[in-house]
Each structure stands twice: as C-alpha cells, then as structure tokens.
Amino acid sequence: MNRVCFVGAGPGDPMLLTLRGAALLKRCRAVFTFPPLDQTFAGLIGDRPVFDPFDFGFDDLLARLDMLLTEGDVVFLQPGDLTFFSPFQALIEALGDRAEVVPGVGVANAASALLKRTLNLSGSCTRTILVSTRALAESPGAPSLEDVARPGVTLLIYMNHYPLAELVARLRSGYGCNQPVALVHRVSLPGQRLLIGTLDDIAGKAQHGPFWGPQGRADLTLIITGEALGARADRGWWDKRREGGHRHRPV
User: Fold this and answer.
1) What angle do CA 180, 81, 22 make, to 5 degrees?
2) C-alpha dihedral, 223 to 228 to 232 to 238, nearest 10°
3) Would you say 124 and 236 are in contact if contact means Cβ atoms under 8 Å apart?
4) I want to staple 229 with a disulfide (CB 3.0 to 4.6 A). Which of 56, 60, 175, 180 is the partner?
5) Is the Cβ–Cβ distance between 156 and 119 less than 8 Å?
6) Cα-based distances in Å from 88 to 85, 93, 105
7) Largest CA distance in the chain
8) Measured between alpha carbons, how far is residue 17 from residues 37, 60, 166 in Å?
9) In terms of DSSP H, where are the helices of the chain?
C-alpha cells in the first residue's frame, strides 16, 4: 500500500534530515511543502512535482492525494517535525493507515545546538515550556504569556505576534526581573542570525536586524528566554552523578 509520509524536515538544512526521510524523498511520487523548504531540499526533491498544501481546500487535498497514491508514495515535508505546532494532524487522522510519520530535528533542538546550551539546566531551570503567543491569545481560558513566564522557566516562543517592545514588557511582567534572551532567526537556513541579550537591551540590539517582519511579527524567529541561557553549570554535578552510579548502561 502506498503511503503519505509526513517527514520532519528539521529547521531546513538537508544535512539534518534523517536517513529515513531522505530515502522517502528520493523514491516518492510527489512532494507537498512550504517555502523555503522547496528550495533548500531541491537537491533531494529532484524533478518531482512540488505542491503547496494550502493551495488546496481540505477535501480537494484528500482527493488529490487519492489520485497521487495510485502512482506511488507522497511526502509532506513538515518544518521541524510533527511534535509541536504541526498543521497536519487533521490530515493524518483522515488518512488513517495510509499515513506514516517520520520524526525530524526540531527547531528547538537546532537552536539549542547553535547556542551550545541545554535549556533545562539543573539548579537554574525546573521547567521548559514551548508556547505560541498567537495560540495563547486565540484560545479562550488559556493562560497569558505573563502567567507562564516565571522564574525557573525557560520559554521557547514560536510564532510570536507581539511587537518586540510589547513582548519584552509582558515577559518582564511575568518573570518580575531581567532575564537573558536569544533571538534565533532562520536557524540552519541561509541568512541564519543569532542575537543574544537581555530583556533590558534586546529591543535596542534588534532594532536594525531581520528578526521582526514588516508587519511586526517574528517571522522565522524563535525566541528563547530564561535563567538557563546565562547560568553556569555546577561542575560538582558531574562527580555526584559518577559517584552515584548514574551511568548509561547497555539495554
């Protein structure tokens, strides 16, 4: 049975694609994806037809997939992977057994690697929360950004829709103090930029950068803030773990 394979494309660098994802791209009949993934993965896509999923209504998209599946597998290149903020869940449910999901490197993973920082540093951060300000604002009864921005929390903010000055004010209100913050723009894509600062100075630093789009939205910019960005790891933890026998052992 031919399948529709939802492949986690990671943040957009083909070198971060899993071997399974690359193999599916090389043998599929057609590809559905969004810019700029159609360009960054062009070498793997080859001459296969590429479609933007949102050029179709939901029922029309299912009908097109039915037709394409008679000829072979179809790949949806999902930015990041399906774990968070994926638009494809309803489509996967409608396809049932004809759908396969292939995990990818999430944008949060790529940003953490670029920063060379773990985002839940023991002793500094007890919680790491992934959030979309837009989703919070559009969901009745959802907590506010101020509610989740608390000491001991690392926030990873996707799809921010607030102007930077307002975002900083909301974060400061929640945290109650200054915090380190990183703006990670187009991570692993051409034009990648990283800006590190604090809630006190990030607005000035970002004033002339590409981090906010013309409509005031943080297009393709992941925002990370919290103590874990600036805290130093306790070296004593290493010996405590070693002496306590907490080592990885073969299963």
Assistant:
1) 125
2) -130
3) no
4) 180
5) yes
6) 9, 9, 17
7) 61
8) 12, 29, 36
9) 19-27, 37-40, 42-45, 58-69, 89-95, 107-115, 133-138, 145-148, 164-175, 202-205, 236-243
Which amino acid is present at 33? Answer: T
What are the strands of the beta sheet with 4-8, ordered from one edge?
50-51, 30-32, 74-78, 4-8, 99-102
Pairing mode, strands 180-185 and 193-198: antiparallel
Write down the residue that tokens 């071997």 correspond to.
19
User: Given the structure tokens 């559905």, which residue do they identify?
Assistant: 32
- List pLDDT tens digits, range 194-205: 999 999 999 999
Q: What single-letter amino acid sits at 62?
A: L
Q: What is the mean pLDDT of each run of 10 residues along the chain (251 residues)?
A: 95 92 96 93 95 97 98 93 88 97 92 94 88 92 95 94 93 96 92 94 88 67 94 81 67 59
Hunting for tokens 């034009």 — which residue is that?
A: 191
Q: State both tokens at 73.
A: 């597998």
Does residue 82 contact residue 6 with C-beta atoms inside 8 Å? Answer: yes
The tokens for 37 are: 């993934």
**CA nearest 81: which of 18, 155, 160?**
18
Which residues, in sequence order, are CB contacts of 75 under 8 Å at separation 6+? Answer: 4, 5, 7, 24, 25, 28, 30, 31, 32
